[in-house]
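Something for you to look into today, if you have time. Just paste the record in under my message, thanks.
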Amino acid sequence: MSKASPSRGLLAAALSAGVVTLGAFGGVASAQTEEASPLNSADVNVESIPSEMRVAIERDLGISAEAYAEQATAAGNASITSTRLAGELGDSFGGAWFNSDTNSLHVKVTDNVAAQVAVDLGAEVEVGGPSLGQLDAASAELASWASNQNGLVAGVSVDVQSSSVVVTLVNGEEAASLAGQVPNVGVEVTTQQQTAERRLVDINGGDGYFTGNQAEDAIIGVCSFGFPAYDAAGSPLYLTAGHCYGDEDNSVAYREIPNEQPSLPLERLGDFGTVSFGEDNNDFATINITGDSIAPAVNTWNGDTTTLTGVVAPLEGMEVCKSGRTTQYTCGEITHAATTWEGVNDGQGNLVDIDGFEHSACTEGGDSGGAIVAGSLAVGITSAAAGNADGGCEITDGQGNPIDPISLGVSLTADVLPHLNDVAVLTEVNAPVIESPEDGQRIGEDEQVIRGTANPFATVSAQINDQSAEVQADADGAWELRPASALPVGEYSVTASQSLTVGGQTYSSEDTSLTFYVAPAAPSILEPADGTESDNATPTVSGTAEPGAIVTVSVDDKEASSADADADGNWAVNLVDELPAGSHTITAVQVIDGAESAAASVTYIVLDGDGEVPPPTTPPGDGEGEGPDAGAPDQDEDDLADTGANFILPLIIIGGVALAGGTFLALKFRRRNAAGTDGVA
């Protein structure tokens, strides 16, 4: 087959709903131009940390803003890598946590095959113990048991580092007696008694936004704004806590002007839309914005804003800062990334269960619905806290000893966005990511699909050589372009940008570009099958190709041998050099009429002398630039988790938040209690 001029036919754009899978993600840093920022970057620049957050970081965490920016970048990338590993490894994934002392990702797996995958991504790995799925199932079973214990159980949490489930009991002898009655759920279970009452962060005192019905002079509470968001039609809305909603007669949100005492009439911001509180252990709501534009920015509490750079899942050990209208910025550490608080007091005589993540940043009344961030990365919204009856962040245990604050956030990626229909966080619009092909990659004639990610529902404009097309990203930000007719063998360049319109305002990105080559289709490898585990250190590699093609086989990027495909297209290569025990990548390419094809590859695992899969052969990184990518150009050698920086997952969307700020307010609020009567809060 000879080279031909690239086709000039039109491209056909196809929306790819859910097309991006974990296995399709790859390094895309090379796909970005120098001027464009990667859409899936978790980088936190110290310049993005406002002065008020710097004060909180130094006060609550005891480190500088510079050190925290580096740590938050590592933690964000660790979160992205952890989520990817959870999807790829399935039942072999035992959970992950972040070590803030070494800025390193730690992963537990159930077997050595999974360990090698995690090590290759730069994680420090422990092999053994239950899977995260088993821990989650055990936690759910214990939460169900706890709901029938007459309020004696305060919460159930998964503790990844100890591969156990922690059951927290309320104070008192009756609750303590339950420690010996916890059912056997197949994993290790530990019990502890709570240190303070767990309650919703009351919607009172302070400023953010008011909830109520101004026509009836009924302002029943105050909460903090969370994250600006939008739906598929580009309509603006806010995400906040579900318990901030009043009722059908008190479903309006009114603007609170920062640093000003309120005066009637209040300015209407919008109406509550979707509200989920108590159902399925949820605590989130949307506010439909009327007549206002929203921005992907967070309040700096000094009259300015700063844009967030990403949205990540909470990770045990990640240090976060909470932004709320009462306490503004406070910081702490995520102690449990998955927890259920049982029997939380909603302040109206009702007890509810809430799923979320637990952290040690101080939270007080009025902070509900506010943003929880890791530097400039969005993590969740504020829901509840454990505290003393008189409030405040200086809480004590049952013996009066001071302890760290205990707060509950609800995760954007786990507890909010998956439950909303076609809603995304409004985020910074950077250049879209072209995930496949990679820059300089040779793709087969049968693999002509351009795939990538962008902001959800954004319009992606792409040009391949002199052909252009547009496509809308789906709810997960995935997009796909296919040529109307096959592109002949040759070299191609692709350039892409995106635009997003929310509430009448359009955000446009810079361009990103790369070059790829269309090559003859790859040969097939039939034996050994992908993932084969064998004690045969010199396997025969065989498959099919174009009749007469020259097939070259390589092992771990080293050429091993070649063979000619026969008249039926069959070929076989006998590996002569023994492969050491461990995992190996076998690849094959074919040459047809002087043109080299794309590559086919399989993983082949040689068992050790005991017939077992050996431990990983590549040493994990240690946070000091000693990982598999140490010394690579354009990488932070002190940032172990940065090896996962170039992977993006569905529902992980780059962006920011907008919050309302201000001073403490002296208002008289009416609250409906459990009996339906009115009382003064």
